[in-house]
Amino acid sequence: MSRSLVHTVDFISGDTEARQLLDELAGRLEHTPGVRAVHGDAGAALWSCSFDGGGLGRLELAAPSDTAAVVEQTHRLVATFSYGTKAEANAFFETVRQLPFSVTEIGKAVAELPLTSGLPSRWPDKPLAGVGVLLTIHHMRDFLVLVDSLLALGVEAAHMTVIDKEYPYANTHRVDAHLVGRHGIAVWRYSDLLAGIADHVGRVTAAGLRSVIMDDGGYVLPAVLRDLPNAAGHFIGLVEQTTSGIRKLDGLTLPLPLFSVAESDMKGMIESYGIADASVRNTLRLLPDEKFEGQPALVLGFGRIGSEVARVLKARRMRVAVFDADITRLVAGHEEGFLTGRTLDDLVAAHRPKLVVGCAGRGSFGLRQARLLPEGAVLVSTTSRDYEFALDELREGSAVVADRGVLGTGYELADGPGILVLGHGMPINFHYAESLSNRYVDLVLAGLAVGAVALAGGDERLRPGHNLAATNAILAESGIVDDYYRLYGPPVGGGHG
Ligand SMILES: NC(=O)c1ccc[n+]([C@@H]2O[C@H](COP(=O)([O-])OP(=O)(O)OC[C@H]3O[C@@H](n4cnc5c(N)ncnc54)[C@H](O)[C@@H]3O)[C@@H](O)[C@H]2O)c1
Prior knowledge:
Layout: E1 5-12, H1 15-29, E2 35-41, E3 46-51, E4 56-62, E5 74-82, H2 86-96, H3 103-112, H4 114-122, E6 131-135, H5 141-152, E7 160-164, H6 172-182, E8 186-189, H7 193-206, E9 210-215, H8 221-227, E10 235-240, H9 243-249, E11 257-260, H10 265-286, E12 296-300, H11 304-315, E13 319-323, H12 327-335, H13 344-351, E14 355-358, H14 367-370, E15 378-381, H15 391-396, E16 398-403, E17 408-413, E18 418-422, H16 438-456, E19 465-466, H17 468-478, H18 480-488
Helix pairs in contact: 4-5, 4-16, 5-16, 10-11, 10-16, 16-17
Bound molecules: nicotinamide-adenine-dinucleotide.
Nicotinamide-adenine-dinucleotide is lined by residues 242-244, 275, 300-306, 323-326, 329, 359-361, 364, 382-384, 427, 429, 435.
């Protein structure tokens, strides 16, 4: 390596625990491929390791120099690698990124998710003791609180499997480290999805149990029905948290009940605004020097999230156009005062948006429309994975395609403007971020657990197929929305008049 590589991460904990956490990492370095020896100790807060190919790794527990710029009890892990090969550097950083969360950090997250963390006291008889759970929920701190609750509701860690969607969340590696290192839960990558499902089914079947799927994007059941049909009977039911997951079930005959948090009133009416707001906030964070006020924006898809994005952008003083393939939604957008058009091409040509936010689901914007954009336009998606824009078309129609690091991908169109697809077209609220605040997402995470409990308990209202009315009824009965209102609504006995 010509220059040293450095990885730093700030974390919050007491002094003793901070040293222990890094000492554990140093212990794991001893088992990292290519490592010859590890030296150092927790007392010195400094460890080093040498690699067979000449690489040197150094791991240090440091303190931020400017304590006024960080919160109390902040420690800084500083990992440095010099001299060796790229493979050695990758192995070193792969290990040192696996820093579990401290007791202080987990305690803070638990306090921020009172509904999710309170479920075990609502159901102390461990209603999930007789099932396995296969999850594909986003790898964020809030997810760890859900996992803690599922464990407390009775699921054995050995009967749980997590599919890592491989989005670049702010804390992906730390969440992985926590799941594997602290709980011993099996984590499989999305790229090994089928192997992960097969492993889960084998493991849980061997224990004489069946499983509930808790999905976020339709990853599991369509893959099971298509590629592992013999495993379909293993699953008792499916909890799905997002619309794109529901779309992936279109046309499939569901052999089991679906608990559709995705389509529930709770999710549509309460969460969509938060996602829209988090998406716009992260867009602004990634582009701090842009000035969007007074500029034209276009929102694709005037559904639950798109309509909220349009409102948030309008409140940020952008001139907002909306487009929806569904005429009723288009009329709704028009009557709310947004600029609309019958064809997307005409709307783009007339409005020339500086910012395009895709909330439609799939293939809503391609090369033909991109050619009509002004120079420097930015495309942003809220849709799962990179399905929103026709990125292959953009690539084929570009003279230059450049990776612009955390910003995303730049496309210099051969006969059009240079544009930026922010975050490579992945959902922007997760791009090196944690989307909604924990207190906000608490309701939906608690809703997912309510679904798992209802499915595991064989609630008779949940029949094979879609169960939207039953989902709404069970969520309402669970009392979590009442609790949310008690926590964040007007004071009891308050109000005016
Ligand atoms: N980023 C996140 O945190 C997050 C969370 C939940 C959902 N999502 C995803 O965001 C997307 C939108 O979710 P939603 O709940 O608002 O869905 P929705 O079904 O309420 O809205 C989608 C809208 O897009 C319109 N549409 C579909 N195809 C179109 C096209 N080609 N051109 C123009 N309009 C089109 C539909 O008519 C509909 O009005 C989905 O892909 C969903 O999975 C993201």
